């Protein structure tokens, strides 16, 4: 495993919500970071069929363009009753013809698909959020970190915090959705803590343990 020896990195994302979450996670470690969006990098085609493949594509694109280490995230909602959909196509389910994204529409698509399956009880609506972080260097070296959190799809959506599908994901052991949690509650982890709640925080915890001297 390669250690990250610089505090200057690129957050390889054009998703404002994701950029904000990663900024919250890396902030305590003193990183100086800009996003691919700020640097006006082109959005790479995510042609992978796994979270790992797409995370690599994004991180390597930003590392190559910037000459700096880059940290990406590929994440999604995996619903058991839908055979793992939307999965790596989680963002695509929100895509509109003009290229913008409507996650209220995407959440409704998930609910409609579950209703078509007759899945109306929590144990029929089990799901997990998956996050794969990729740290890439300009020389092509990459490190991957996967985090998952189990739960179920709730309906109707609840809460306005977070982003994406957060208002319909209720993690195991909680009576609130990610959309009803503060950033601190959702992440559930900071340096020195033993546990992490969100999928992204769990992946980030592995990144810290592997690549940082923290």
Describe this structure in words.
- Keywords: Hydrolase, Magnesium, Metal-binding, Nucleotide metabolism, Nucleotide-binding.
- It catalyses: XTP + H2O = XMP + diphosphate + H(+); dITP + H2O = dIMP + diphosphate + H(+); ITP + H2O = IMP + diphosphate + H(+).
- GO terms for molecular function: ITP diphosphatase activity.
- Its EC number is 3.6.1.66.
- The structure is a single chain.
- Helix content is 28%, strand content 21%.
- It has 214 residues and is an alpha/beta fold.
- The chain has a six-stranded mixed sheet.
- The protein is globular, with a radius of gyration of 17 Å.
Instruction: Please give the alpha-carbon distance between the first and last residues.
Output: 15 Å
Query: What is the structural class?
Result: alpha/beta
Task: Please give the share of residues in helix.
Answer: 25-40%
What is the percentage of strand-forming residues?
Answer: 15-25%
Task: Count the E strands.
Answer: 6
What is the typical, i.e. mean, pLDDT? 92
Strand count, sense and barrel status of the largest sheet are: 6 strands, mixed
Q: Enumerate the spans where pLDDT stays under 50 for 5 or more consecutive residues.
A: none
- Principal-axis shape: globular
Provide the spatial order of strands within the biggest beta sheet. Answer: 2-1-3-4-5-6
Helix and strand element order: EHEHEHEEEHH
Number of helices: 5
Rg (C-alpha, Å): 17 Å
């Amino acid at each position: 495993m390669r250690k990250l020896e610089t505090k200057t990195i690129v957050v390889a994302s054009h998703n404002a919500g994701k950029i904000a979450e990663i900024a919250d996670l890396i902030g305590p470690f003193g990183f100086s970071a800009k996003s691919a969006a700020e640097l006006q990098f082109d959005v790479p085609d995510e042609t992978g069929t796994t979270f790992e493949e797409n995370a690599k594509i994004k991180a390597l694109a930003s590392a190559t363009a910037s000459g700096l280490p880059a940290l990406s995230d590929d994440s999604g909602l995996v619903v058991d009753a839908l055979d793992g959909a939307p999965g790596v196509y989680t963002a695509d389910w929100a895509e509109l013809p003009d290229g913008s994204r409507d996650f209220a529409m995407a959440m409704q698509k998930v609910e409609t698909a579950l209703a078509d399956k007759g899945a109306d009880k929590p144990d029929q609506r089990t799901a997990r959020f998956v996050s794969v972080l990729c740290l890439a260097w300009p020389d092509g070296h990459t490190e991957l970190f996967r985090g998952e959190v189990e739960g179920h799809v709730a309906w109707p959506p609840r809460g306005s915090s977070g982003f994406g599908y957060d208002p319909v994901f209720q993690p195991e052991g909680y009576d609130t959705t990610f959309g009803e949690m503060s950033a601190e509650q959702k992440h559930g982890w900071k340096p020195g803590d033993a546990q992490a709640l969100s999928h992204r925080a769990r992946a980030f915890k592995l990144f810290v343990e592997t690549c940082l001297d923290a």
